[in-house]
Amino acid sequence: MNGGQKRMKIERLLAITMMLLSQRRVSATVLAEKFEVSLRTIYRDMETINGAGIPIVSYTGADGGYEIMEQFRIERQLVTFEDLQSILVALKGVQSSLDDQEMETLLTKIKALVKRADQYQMEETGDTLLFDTNLWHGGGISDKSILTTLRQAARNRTVASFLYTNTTGEAEQRSVEPIGLAWKGYAWYLYTYCRLREDYRTFRISRMSDLRIHIETFMDRGVTLAELDARWGNQETGPGVNLVLRFQPRVRVQVEEAFGLQHVQVQEDGTLLVRVTYPDNHWLYGMLLGYGPNLHIVEPAFVAERVKKFAEQVVKVYEGI
Predict the structure, then answer these.
(1) 306 and 284 Cβ atoms separated by less than 8 Å
(2) Over the chain, what is the mean pLDDT?
């Protein structure tokens, strides 16, 4: 057996052990199909795992299979059962969006840290918290594999290129050095060093097309994903603008949800006064227009004027109807 075969066997033995720790009972047939090996190989693997000090119990019959003895578990003294539940919920949420095989493997490993009795409790009570990053319509990303592809490119430091369409509908070819992915509010973004602009840029992934990952690699420029995230509000989002907005009482629920209670002041006449700072971009004006006659823009005047012009353009579209 060469080095590569030994490594594959070790990885398979570890994966089998994690599977047995995270599930009640697994048959030899299921294991053989999952790891694409023969039943004889699975039998030998069980002997190897048992010989390594992990107590494997074999059951025969229709519900037969392999289990690890209830008393055996990987120590998890640093985290509680509730901690592990929260970790699993978060990972499931991310997995629903990324569709990443590595994330699925991590979920299996985390489940292995839960005692068998606690696993029964989790199954009986069910989840009391759901974290899902998926939007109702997929956030504009039809193929989730693009997230895994870009994440792998960032990890391997390989150059990526794509056609990018901005908010005004203009398309431009970009060649970038991927640094990492970020989920921002309601969409996935790619943080990069853009070779065209010769500076760091963020790109909304749903606006990419014709993605290609190249053989060419790049050197680390010494800027981390966290440092780039601190720059949020860059060229892709626009400079910040201080807003003073007055809303009608009928949209109070929507306003409190959108801006947060800390930014909402209820006036004597029942209207809602909101003071916030948002990027000056197309998203801002679309959001403001969405409130229609329920919103009066108090400040700044140039934002009110732009919203007025956009509204007039909308009216023209429907003239003659």
Answers:
(1) no
(2) 79
Indicate if 96 and 64 belong to the same structural domain.
Answer: no
The three-state secondary structure class of 243 is strand
SS3 content of the chain, % helix, strand, coil (to 5): 45, 25, 30
CATH number at residue 38: 1.10.10.10
The residue among 63, 12, 20 whose CA lies nearest residue 41 is: 12
Do residue 10 and residue 90 come from a single domain?
A: no
Residue 235 lies in a domain: no
Helices 3-22, 28-35: inter-axial angle, 10-degree rounding: 130
Residue 121: give the domain boundaries: 81-125
pLDDT per residue as tens digits for the range 132-160: 555 544 455 666 778 889 988 998 999 99
- C-alpha 206, offset from chain centre: 14
- Give, for 135, the enclosing helix (H) or strand (E): none
